[in-house]
Specification:
Largest sheet: 9 strands, mixed
Number of strands: 17
Shape: globular
CATH class of the largest domain: Alpha Beta
Order of helices and strands: EEHEEEEEEEEHHEHEEHEHEEHHE
Number of domains: 2
CATH superfamily of the largest domain: QueA-like
Distance between the termini: 21 Å
Length: about 350
């Protein structure tokens, strides 16, 4: 196989196609159906008719936390902290922006009265480990703000507080939303249920590393950030029952797909429980669990674009993205969606746990 290059996953996107705000209704977006037969312009509201009785939708029930903090160093310099992962009641692994990176032992303070402090205890590549003086959940609730993605240019407001969460968000821990799930509202879920389409949920806490750019051209040298996931027994039972009745497993978002593929053996057998995953899916990966993927449109040169290219094939995704740009689809977190049928020529690949 020809080595994969970062440039294989680049495209030009007009800036005005980056959705800055959600639509007035969650399920009002457009839906590009990409099957092996071709492309079809549909609406998210059409999703129930594109699925079959007996199919299973797998949602990610993670909840976005107020993971962005603004504070000061002891010198008075400003710092911006974006949580990547919670490692304990008072410890977090974070991205940190400052004029000069703090050294281990440096003190940071948050809040108008500097009543909340943290110590930088270690650095790990792009990330910093902070030990907080108080319970981290309390710190974030008091002083944190919603961590909208870097391509959304407005400060988070009351609309974002509601719409940058899925309607089934249950488990706090994500610092970015599982955005394919943002399209679902109660009316769409009711229509899905009426069609005899089942639903289940797992948890993958999306980390800030999802926005860290790939910095190597040779993709075999890229190391994925770790994300925590949990697959419950009830979801495995639902998937097994779907397979028995001949239904399809539909991953709602790349996060649900990564959790399922991470929890599966080579033969597709799933294992319940919690774990961390560094699964990096590139073309050549053989998908063990997922039969259909619902997802948004992803950033150029991103690992998520590589994942959908692995699922459908590089050329099909290139054609789909050209079509989406020509038809003025809305891109990224608040953007429109794709329903993707997998390529038949997927081969056992280079999935790394």
């Amino acid at each position: 196989m020809t080595p994969l290059r970062l440039s294989d996953f680049d495209f030009d996107l007009p800036e005005e196609l980056i959705a800055q705000h959600p639509l007035p209704r969650r399920s009002a977006g457009r839906l590009l159906s990409s099957t092996r037969a071709g492309l079809e312009d549909r609406l998210v509201d059409d999703l129930p008719s594109l699925l079959r009785e007996g199919d299973l939708l797998v949602f990610n029930d993670t909840r976005v936390i107020k993971a962005r903090l603004f504070g000061r160093k002891a010198s008075g310099g400003r710092v911006e902290v974006l949580g990547e992962r919670v490692d304990g009641p008072r410890r977090a692994r974070v991205q940190l922006r400052a004029s000069h990176a703090p050294k281990p032992g440096s003190r940071l303070s948050f809040g108008d009265a500097d009543e909340t402090g943290a110590t930088m205890v270690a650095r790990d590549a792009d990330f910093f480990v902070l030990d907080f003086d108080r319970d981290l959940a309390d710190v974030l609730e008091r002083h944190g703000s919603l961590p909208l993605p870097p391509y959304i240019e407005h400060p988070p407001d009351a609309i974002d507080a509601e719409r940058y969460q899925t309607v089934w968000a249950r488990e706090p821990g994500a610092v970015a939303a599982p955005t394919a799930g943002l399209h679902f509202d109660e009316a769409l879920l009711a229509a899905i249920d009426a069609r005899g389409i089942a639903t289940t949920a797992l948890t993958l806490h999306v980390g800030a590393g999802t926005f860290v750019p790939v910095r190597v051209d040779d993709l075999s040298r890229h190391v994925m950030h770790e994300e925590r996931y949990a697959v419950p027994r009830a979801s495995i039972d639902a998937i097994d029952a779907t397979r028995v009745r001949g239904g399809r497993v539909v991953a709602v978002g790349t996060t649900s797909l990564r959790a399922l593929e991470s929890a599966a053996d080579v033969d597709g057998t799933l294992h319940e429980g919690e774990a961390g995953t560094r699964l990096f899916v590139t073309p050549g990966h053989r998908f063990r669990v997922v039969d259909l993927l619902l997802t948004n449109f992803h950033l150029p040169q991103s690992t998520l674009l590589m994942l959908v290219s692995a699922f459908a094939g590089i050329e099909r995704i290139r054609a789909a993205y050209r079509h989406a740009i020509e038809r003025r689809y809305r891109f990224f977190s608040y953007g429109d969606a794709m329903l993707i049928e997998p390529s038949l020529d997927a081969r056992p690949g280079r999935a790394v746990r």
